[in-house]
Design brief:
By secondary structure, this protein is an alpha+beta fold. The longest helix is centred in the first third of the chain and has 16 residues, at about 1-15. It has a domain at about 50-150: Sandwich (Immunoglobulin-like). A four-stranded antiparallel β-sheet has the order 1-3-6-5, with no helix packed on it. A four-stranded mixed β-sheet has the order 2-8-7-4, with no helix packed on it. It has helices at about 1-15, 30-45; strands spanning about 50, 55-65, 70-75, 85-90, 95, 110-115, 120-130, 140-150.
Length: about 180
């Protein structure tokens, strides 16, 4: 095995050292100028700009489990076509849908729907992230609501009043015993 490794190493050394030509001599000056022009135009490239009719939608006060939806309208206020590749929310309770993956020309408008299942308790806020070919690559809108507990709902948890109380004398270990 050592002979194989030694032989392979010697072959590699011969292969890498046998090239006597200087790699810099192989570069064509016309390719350099084309690359510089391409890079300069990329630095000055225009990006589409997504302008929303609202950046946040407040559903107000809703009962727990009541599904709600809203529509976010947007316009491409940039000078080049806008392409949305994905729209996601921070959790599965909020579902963005009905958006076009086709390019949206300058000045054109589009929309997408956001469904929220209404689950939660108290103030709830969710972020929807739009992945697009804008300068930042990601745009965000938010939804929020105050979710009230359903008054007819029965509690799903029970408290055992006969359970032993857990205590600890060590700070930060409240809730479990160290005997």
């Amino acid at each position: 095995m050592k002979k194989v490794i030694l032989g392979f190493s010697a072959l590699c050394m011969v292969a890498f050292t046998s090239c006597k030509e200087d790699a810099a001599d192989k570069i064509k000056s016309e390719n350099i100028s084309q690359a510089q022009e391409r890079d300069a135009s990329a630095m000055n490239a225009d990006f589409p700009v997504m302008t929303f009719d609202k950046s946040e939608h407040d559903f107000g006060q809703i009962e727990d489990g009541t599904p709600v939806e809203t529509v976010f309208n947007y316009t491409n206020t940039g000078d080049v076509p806008l392409v949305i590749t994905d729209i996601k929310s921070t959790c599965g309770c909020t579902v963005p849908q009905d958006w076009s993956k086709d390019p949206l020309g300058p000045g054109e408008s589009g929309q997408f729907t956001v469904n929220f299942n209404g689950k939660g308790n108290g103030n709830t806020s969710k972020t929807v992230t739009i992945t697009a070919n804008t300068e930042s690559g990601k745009e965000q809108v938010k939804i929020k609501a105050f979710v009230k507990k359903d008054p007819s709902a029965t509690p799903t948890t029970s408290v055992n009043l006969n359970a032993p109380t857990k205590t600890s004398t060590q700070p930060g270990h409240e809730g479990h015993n160290h005997n």
